[in-house]
């Protein structure tokens, strides 16, 4: 097996205000689950060296499997950030055990803290704030928190964002007090307008954290709609619904190309645009998602197999 470095594409110097999709894709992160990661023979053949890989915490998956996945990815040269869901932790002791395992067995000190996908908490933590108040995260190097550009009815039942914005401010203050690097990793959406509006609202509310915006990677339209509904994607779901009316497109993959181009233009036009990087959800598969990223401007070191050995 020979190793071939994939250099970043040569780009002409951008004029002020000129949009670059490639620059927005640069440094993307991606999300995996233990069961999907187990099917990938060689992550280095798919991802740039040093890519941040989030490990989704699926309720019911043994912590041993998640830590093993984290350990493998760290050993292969990736920056790993496991999900830590507040409402899934059954007790203070269980939360402490998760963190100790990740740190002790995989050397991880960065986590995505989020509420979790269960309605009734399994233990004492009903929110991320309550989980942070345990002090167990005070020594973390980096924490990411969840953001919802189109709102989250689990947080603000009336469809607004007052509670969500206050929670973001509290977490921002927590990180500043403890010297922890923090960013917002978001749910995915399908059109730029609500994302741009949310970015402006963040800054107006005094929230200066960088945003790593969730983008759904290429997938069949039926698959995309299924995940969008399950994840509570907001009004931008209409983008998919309009496309679904054309039966000839139902089996064709839906790609985020137009959305990313629109976001690149928005960032070029607004120096205070909150979106710093993209976080890719590989709904149609890791290989399809990374291939799309490469095609649209991202190049990095990968392996090219010419034989075994």
TrEMBL record:
Record keywords: Oxidoreductase
Gene3D superfamilies, per the entry: 3.20.20.220
The protein's name in its UniProt record: Methylenetetrahydrofolate reductase
InterPro entries: FAD-linked_oxidoreductase-like (IPR029041)
SUPFAM superfamilies: FAD-linked oxidoreductase
Domain of life: Bacteria
The UniProt record lists the keyword Oxidoreductase: yes
Lineage, highest ranks first: Bacteria, Pseudomonadati, Pseudomonadota, Alphaproteobacteria, Rhodobacterales
């Amino acid at each position: 097996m020979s190793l071939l470095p994939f250099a970043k594409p040569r780009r002409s110097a951008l004029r002020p205000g000129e949009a670059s999709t490639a620059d927005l894709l640069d440094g993307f992160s991606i999300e995996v689950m233990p069961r999907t990661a187990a099917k990938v023979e060689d992550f280095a053949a798919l991802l740039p060296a040093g890519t941040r890989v989030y490990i989704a915490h699926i309720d019911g998956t043994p912590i041993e499997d998640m830590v093993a996945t984290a350990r493998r990815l760290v050993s292969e040269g990736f920056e790993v950030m496991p999900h830590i869901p507040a409402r899934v932790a059954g007790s203070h002791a269980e939360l402490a055990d998760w963190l100790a395992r990740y740190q002790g067995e995989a050397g991880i000190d960065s986590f995505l803290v989020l509420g979790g996908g269960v309605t009734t908490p399994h233990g004492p933590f009903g929110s991320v704030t309550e989980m942070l108040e345990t002090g167990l995260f005070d020594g973390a190097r980096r924490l990411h928190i969840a953001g919802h550009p189109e709102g989250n009815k689990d947080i603000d039942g009336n469809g607004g964002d007052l509670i969500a914005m206050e929670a973001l401010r509290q977490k921002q203050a927590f990180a500043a007090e403890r010297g922890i690097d923090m960013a917002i990793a978001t749910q995915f959406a399908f059109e730029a307008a609500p994302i741009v509006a949310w970015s402006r609202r963040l800054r107006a509310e005094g929230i200066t954290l960088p945003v790593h915006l969730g983008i759904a990677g290429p997938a069949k339209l039926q698959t995309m709609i299924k995940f969008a509904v399950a994840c509570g994607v907001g009004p931008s779901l209409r983008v998919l619904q309009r496309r679904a009316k054309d039966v000839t497109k139902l089996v064709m993959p839906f790609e985020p190309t137009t959305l990313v181009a629109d976001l690149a233009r928005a960032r070029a036009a607004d120096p205070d645009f909150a979106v710093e990087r993209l976080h890719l959800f590989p709904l149609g598969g890791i290989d399809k998602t990374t291939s799309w990223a490469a095609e649209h401007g991202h190049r990095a070191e990968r392996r090219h197999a010419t034989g075994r050995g």
